[in-house]
Structure formats: structure tokens, C-alpha cells
User: Fold this.
Amino acid sequence: MPDTPDTQSAPPGVRLDPWSESDLGLLRAMNAPELMSHLGGPETEEQLLTRHRRYVDLSADLTGRGRMFRIVLPPSGEAVGTIGFWEQTWQGQQVYETGWGVLPAHQGRGIAAAAAAAVVAKARAEHRYRYLHAFPSVDNRPSNALCRRVGFSLRGECEVEYPKGRLMRANDWRLDLTPGADDRESPGPPPASGGILTT
Assistant:
């Protein structure tokens, strides 16, 4: 699949490009201890290579399973982070899950929020699942604040398995992808504690 910029729903100042073979260096940069502190620490090189292959395969898939992107700042084309969405089974329901990261030197500038808004639009355009979930650690204040800013509704705390074999206490944030819906108006009951294996 050609690695062409995908700018249709990206807000001004942020571009989302499909993940490609050339993005392994960015993935290594995102593996910094300060970025992985809420996710069990940096991954091994073998784990990074496995993740990179999964990201490349997901972005080449056109069946709606999801997409992975590098976050790019135009006009320089500098890659400053990662974001994506993918299929997940959560409490017996098929949903999309999302996750993101921005390199430390570029944090605090609204880049993650702009990229997250773009990913919401892309997941909505798939017309595949009603809900998009995010599961940041309860201790990750910036990511939790970002979920609220982008329009997710806090469903409650839960346990997620990330990385494999390690349980993490997380917040379950949900966004209704139905056009015009505002999930924040009817949050419903908090989820029962359960496990989920994330990408």
C-alpha cells in the first residue's frame, strides 16, 4: 500500500500519515522511559519489532480493523508521535480502542488533542463499531485529561492487561461514534472490573 499522507480529517497543523516500514525509528524514540512509565516500562528490541510489524500490517489492512499513524507536523514533515485505533473485544462487545503518544519535546502544544480528534473522525468514518474506548492508567493525568477534552465519557475504573502478563489499573473512557451523539450526556453504569489485552 503506498505511504501517502492521510489529511482528510486532520485539524490544521497536524497530519496523520499511515504507519510504514520506515517508522521503526519513531517507534524506538517513543520507547523512552518517560513515555513508557505508565505502560510497564520500555519494551525490548524484539517487542518493538513485533509491534512495528503489527502496526505496518494494520495500516495495510483495508477491512476496517483499524489503522495506525505517525503524527506529523507540516510543512516540515517532522514525525512527533504515534496514534491509531484498532478492533477490540470489551465486555463481550466489539469496539474500537485508541491509544497515542507524543515525543516529550513536542508535548504541551495541543498536538495529541488534534491528533486524537482526527482519529475519532477516522474511526467514525469506518461505520463499523458504535464505540471508541481509551484505557489510560489512572495515574496518567495528561492522557485522562485529553480523553475528556476530546469528548470521551468516563465509564469508571477497570483492570487492563498491558503489557501481557501485567495488570494495570486504568480508566475506561468511551466515545459514541454515532454522528451527532454525545456520550457524555448518558454515561450509564461504570463497567465491572475486567481484563483486556491491548495492542
The radius of gyration is 16 Å. Strands lie at 15-18, 66-73, 78-90, 93-102, 131-134, 153-161, 167-176. Confidence is low (pLDDT under 50) at residues 1-11, 185-199. The longest helix spans residues 45-60.
